[in-house]
Specification:
This protein is an alpha+beta fold. It is globular.
């Protein structure tokens, strides 16, 4: 067994309630790193092409990287890989909290779950063994209630729970799983895959820790991170505000509403959702094991008719993501969005997909394109109506069932020409809109991502919007930190737009892959203390593998190609890497101005041909032909 790993993979058969423990293949671990990477390899071995996402044979694979449990800052990521029901892609969702550490504490690096239990079941994984618990009394309960109940039964708040709500039980295509009530395994429908297996929750508990190959070198490297933290001038603000520390940027990047046709007023956003509103709640912030920048929130309303209401959330910022879309908060009630987000989390609905889908329907109704009589719940930007929608979708009641099946189901139900208005790529709703801040990697990666739009895998120097062109030399330094070599950086910066967003995106994804395979949090205020070179040195120090940095870089390529190859087998190809039509129509700004899609620096308006060329640049940088035969 290599150091850094627990050396065991757990295989679970829910049909027979049987388990098998296999040794982790050291050569595979060396080549695929761990976490996301080893999950990809295990998926390739365990998955039969063409398997329906909610069929018993579609595996759920959970993995914890080799840095989890070593004390590396932010090394707490749990990765879940499966074929997702929202759009049929094979990819991963990434969560945090204690689960990854506890899984390794129980003696396992990865878990492969197949089959369908005959009755609602909780899978418990611990140092003492693996158990199948009857969850019949928990079926129908929300994810928070289930988590609290299982922690109480387990006798310790330190046990970790992945749980689904009613939406997952009823196989809603955009249902998610909650990790310890404070993190999500979302985007794509992992909750539905668990529900299809009658798997209400998974518990992990254990205190074992991985052996480290070179403890002195690890201590030296971690000491360097701590030294850099001391010099981080913004750390005090991060500790004060958590994710809201980045409010000024987010409110620029994530301000579209009315089906991405208008910009929500920045002034209104600050008044109804901003940092000053955040501070009116009683806040207790907490974080994952080994994290030095806690960013999760326990929020309590301290005044008004909802005084005493309390919730746990990945971040208060989520309430803005939901609230602005429906204009929920008002000067007399700045708590509505927090309460709505709480309901969505408890039901186990992806708040982003729910909000985008409902905003799409309401906007189409407001614009006279859609007859509201098609549905049996009012299409209104109103807390009570939206709560009815959330519960109806979660239980697949009435006409809400059309939404529960995801975008394809909804568009089929609507008929006509609604697809051209749909804010989707690969049948998954978009998050970032380049008409707001220009086409950076966060916006572009939505097009080429194997999973479709998501928030984590497109980070780069363009994460901060509105930088001047004079910062291009800093972009080169940042790309070097992310693992691009000097020749790649030259190719990226050789562009009439200042840089090629397609070529840069390849290294955004590679950087995400390194961090997620090792188990490191990708949030900007954590990954800023890491570099590709440091990740390589940490991997060597922890595992003892004698692997050069170029070989380490090739491992990242192998991981991404493995995932891409599985999706090609499911019929996904270059023709799916297309920007949505709505990006090429003007968006109305807060002062009535017309906003069009431009390059990151705003040099010129972009056409679809420009975007298609960036996609070709991306494919070229990855070494893929247009026919992808090498996959």
């Amino acid at each position: 067994m290599a150091a850094g790993y627990m050396g065991r993979v757990l295989f679970v058969d829910l049909d027979m309630q049987e388990i098998e423990t296999r040794e982790l293949d050291t050569d595979v671990a060396k080549n695929f790193i761990g976490g996301m990477g080893l999950n990809a390899w295990l998926m390739k071995q365990s998955y039969m092409p063409g398997t329906d996402p909610v069929a018993p044979d579609n595996p759920i694979i959970l993995g914890a990287g080799p840095l989890v449990g070593t004390g590396a800052p932010g090394a707490a990521k749990i990765v879940a890989t499966t074929r997702f029901p929202l759009n049929g892609t094979i990819s991963e969702s990434v969560g945090s909290m204690r689960f990854a550490r506890n899984l390794k504490g129980a003696g396992f690096d990865h878990v492969v779950i197949k089959g369908r239990a005959t009755k609602p079941t909780v899978l418990e994984i611990s140092e003492d063994g693996v158990s199948f618990l009857d969850a019949s009394d928990l079926w129908g309960l929300d994810a928070f209630t289930v988590t609290d109940a299982l922690k109480k039964i387990g006798g310790s708040p330190k046990i970790s729970v992945i749980a689904i709500g009613p939406a997952g039980e009823n196989q809603v295509a955009f249902s998610l799983a909650m990790v310890d009530k404070a993190s999500t395994l979302g985007r794509g429908g992992l909750g539905a895959v668990m529900g299809s297996k009658n798997l209400k929750a998974i518990i992990a508990k254990g205190s074992a820790r991985p052996v480290v190959s070179d403890g002195d070198e690890l201590s030296k490297l971690l000491g360097g991170i701590k030294d850099r933290l001391k010099r981080f001038k913004n750390h005090k603000r991060v500790l004060e505000l958590g994710i809201m520390e980045n409010w000024d940027n987010y409110v620029k990047q994530l301000s579209a509403y009315r089906n991405f046709t208008h910009v929500f007023s920045p002034q209104k956003a600050n008044e109804l959702y901003g940092p000053s509103v955040y501070k009116t709640f009683r806040v207790r912030r907490f974080g994952c094991p080994s994290c030095f920048t806690p960013d999760k929130d326990i929020l309590e309303i301290t005044q008004g008719p909802y005084k005493g209401f309390k919730t746990t959330t990945t971040s208060y910022f989520n309430s803005y993501s939901v609230g602005r879309v429906f204009d929920l908060n008002s000067s007399s009630d700045k708590t509505a969005a927090v309460r709505m987000t709480d309901l969505l989390d408890k039901m186990g609905l992806d708040m982003l997909s729910f909000s985008t889908m409902m905003d799409f329907l309401i906007t189409e109704c407001e614009q006279g394109h859609l007859d509201a009589q098609l549905f049996d719940i009012p299409l209104q930007r109103d807390m009570n109506a939206l709560a009815k929608w959330a519960r109806a979708i979660s239980t697949r009641k009435g006409k809400a069932d059309a939404l529960a099946g995801g975008w394809r189901s909804l568009l089929s139900y609507l008929g006509g020409d609604f697809e051209r208005y749909a804010p989707i790529i690969k049948n998954c709703d978009i998050l970032w809109d380049p008409r707001l801040v220009g086409l950076g990697t966060m916006e572009f990666e939505q097009i080429v991502s194997v999973k479709g739009p998501r928030s984590a895998s497109g980070g780069s120097p363009t994460y901060v919007p509105g930088q001047p062109e004079e910062n291009l030399p800093l972009f080169g330094r940042h790309l070097d930190r992310m693992g691009a070599d000097s020749k790649a950086i030259d190719r990226i910066l050789d562009s009439p737009f200042g840089f090629s967003v397609g070529r840069m995106t390849r290294y955004s994804e590679d950087w995400y892959t390194v961090l997620t395979s090792l188990g490191i949090c990708n949030r900007h205020f954590n990954n800023r203390f890491y570099s590709f070179e440091l990740c390589h040195r940490l991997f060597v120090a922890v595992t003892g593998f004698q692997i050069g940095i170029d070989e380490f870089r090739e491992s990242v390529v192998m991981i991404w190609n493995t995932i891409k190859g599985m999706n090609i087998s499911e019929g996904f190809g270059p023709e799916d890497d297309r920007a949505p039509q709505l990006w090429f129509s003007p968006m109305i700004g807060p002062d009535g101005e017309s906003l069009v899609i431009r390059d990151y620096f705003g040099r010129q308006e972009l056409t679809r041909e420009d975007i298609d060329q960036f996609v070709r640049d991306y494919y070229d940088e990855r070494g893929w032909g247009s026919d992808l035969k090498r996959m």
